[in-house]
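Exercise 3.2. Students should predict the tertiary structure of the chain below and write it as structure tokens, then compare their answer with the key that follows.

Predict this chain's 3D structure.
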Amino acid sequence: MKKFLVSLFLLSSLLFLGGARRISAQDDSRITVNVVLVQLNVAVTDRKGNYVTGLKPEDFQITEDKLPEKIATFEEGNEPTTRLVLSGPDGKMVPQPVAESTAPDGAASSRSIVQGTTGANVFILFDTSNYMYRGFVFAQDSIADFIRSLEGVGKVAFYSYSRDLSRAVPLTGERSTVLRGVRSTVAGDDAALYNSLLLTVKDAARLTGRKAIVVFSNGPDNASLVPPEDVAELAQSTGTIIYMISTRDAQAEPISTAVFERMSKATGGKAYFSKSWKEEKDAFASIRDDLAHLYSLSYYPAANPNRGWRTISVKLVGEAAQKYRIRTRDGYRVLKPAQIASAVQPTAAASSSGELPQQ
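Answer key:
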């Protein structure tokens, strides 16, 4: 009986200590997420679809989870970024120029770093799967014309994909280098679009400022392991715009059409369905115009206990509220530090060639 009681006491002690260790481990594993700067890319159009220029920071009203936010930086089109600071006894927000800086950027950037990059960084993702055999040369021509036409864009990267992602040309300001990368592509295997797009979003997540991915696809995804919802969520949380150009008729691929439209809309971009070479060029021209007319706004979120999905609302105030329309992302999910690290770490093992873009 004594042996039994001693054994029972020891067992109870071990269970108690084990439980205490588990509780302690749980307490130690708690992560406080501090989102300090959120970047928004906002397109403003009139009722005819024409872009509206000349708006000021005071014309915009931002709320996050219905909490009012103060704009920290403001940029129109390809103009330099300005920072808004409180000045004077009346507490007015006064614009100041911002020095250029670059740093890793998840849903937000560090408070000590306010980006000031003029223009966007654009990643072009080209479908070189076996779906592309017929219109391969025409697609290369359309992409090349698009690259030549880009003005006010900081840097351009050219990636291609079939079953694997090829980082053919990392981010560069040399358009001739990107054009050579376009001409060097060859058609290949099955299409793993969402796998490749996720890796491209992770590359873009390492950059501050405006960043956009332009996808040129000629067919559905038939080889990916990740769902498109994961891609869209990461793009939303890292402030990356996704534009989709599909050469398939929207009626012919209803599932892919719905996915492309949802993904682009969620990130503040657009989806295009081009049945001819001319329509492909028109789609690229539309994207170029969109990038040139975006307003870029950022803000430091007000205190918010929500550590999940945060809903963003951007509205115009005054007379502009009734006359114009806004397109931007409608929110983001707060990323934990481990998720941000995973998003911005190089994933070269998943790439068939090339290097990660340089900041």
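Discussion points: The chain has nine helices and 17 strands. The longest strand covers residues 38-45.
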